[in-house]
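TICKET #2291
ISSUE: user wants both folds in one file
ATTACHMENT 1:
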Amino acid sequence: MINADDFKAAFRSHPAGVALITADAHGVPIALTASSVSAVSADPPLLMFSVSVHSSSAVVLRLADTVVVHLLSADNLDLAVLGATSGIDRFSDTERWRRLETGEPVFDDAHTWLRARILHRIDAGGSTVFVGTAIESRLAREGSGGGAEGLVYQNRTWHRLSAESVADPADLIRESVR
């Protein structure tokens, strides 16, 4: 078995999409940035993410029935930084967020968000894996950020995906023919 440092180093070079996860339990709103969000199934619409048990948000997430997963674009880097910064009040700027009718905090600057009901909490090493079913969404539409540049996290750095970063397999074929 490899050690924790080698495992972290292996995944440090693997880029991942960035999300801001918000929830509320008993009137305590939380927000955290995660790069562990992924789709599990389209039908039914299931997603998953993991959170360290040492995260200041872990207790609220374990108590919350629902979460809002904001899928961030490069235009939302400020939200990613907000959720990743320790020791601040992420909800102090009341102009940036609101509560859904169901009570969860939501940041409407995010181009896309999914509200999910937590189905499973799975203890996995020093983390908890959350599996939820998407029950509501606000999707990016063409002209409103639907074509926004992606935001990924790799090697402890934020990266913007753009048209210039597209890798075309046809280029590899052309190179190998030369």
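ATTACHMENT 2:
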Amino acid sequence: MKTRIISAIVAIIIAIPLIILGKYVFAIGVCLIAALAYKEILDLKESHNQLPLIMAFLGFFAMICIILSNNVDASIYRGLTYQVITLVILFLLIPTIFLDKKYSTKDAFYLIGVVFLLGVTFNTFIVIRNRGLYLFLYLLIIPMVTDIFAMLGGKYFGHHKMCPKLSPHKTWEGSLSGLLGGSLIGIIFYVIFIGSLNIRVILITIILSLIGQMGDLVMSKIKRENNIKDFSNIMPGHGGILDRLDSVIFVFLAYMFLLII
């Protein structure tokens, strides 16, 4: 428990200045975090079939390009979203011709999936932070509070297992507690710092709390399928980057989608 608390304090001390400062400082921090997440996912792949170092590097470069697309002032990145996507596909597929058995088309599609998942996710973090500090915090608070209330609800009221094969400790009572707590705190934060209360805000907050819980389960499934407890041990007592950002990733992606519909 002591190790877990110390790790959490260190993470908060590092994260808060990055979030508050925003802009280039935040973008650099996001790229560093993305690099760690990228390694965690590649480690899953390399436990079965190691990728050539050159392709891992090209995948990393492609991911960074997606993360920074349309998010910084440098003109080279402005309006290049489709060009970046095209280059990623070309860079990661064409080498399968020359690397033969060392790098198959299956490896290429795996790498493309990783690059786009992480690239789009961390790109979204920067986009939303650039739109406003309080909006970013609102989306961060929802999954964090949902997780806390789900844990407390499951501990004190949980009796009916939710997904015992994926996450033995999760219960329906805990999930409902998380939904109520995360939605309520999220709505209160929105009304105080962002805007007025309306049915759209309520619905979006509830949906995001639900999707955050689904994201947690998806990451649990990935770990279960790869027979690991955590993605890494970079945060002692907590696991890896993806262990901490599991529900957050899905909440931010879902919010960007909900803005469109």
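RESOLUTION: both attachments delivered.
EXTRA DETAIL ON ATTACHMENT 2: The chain has two domains: 1-131, 132-261.
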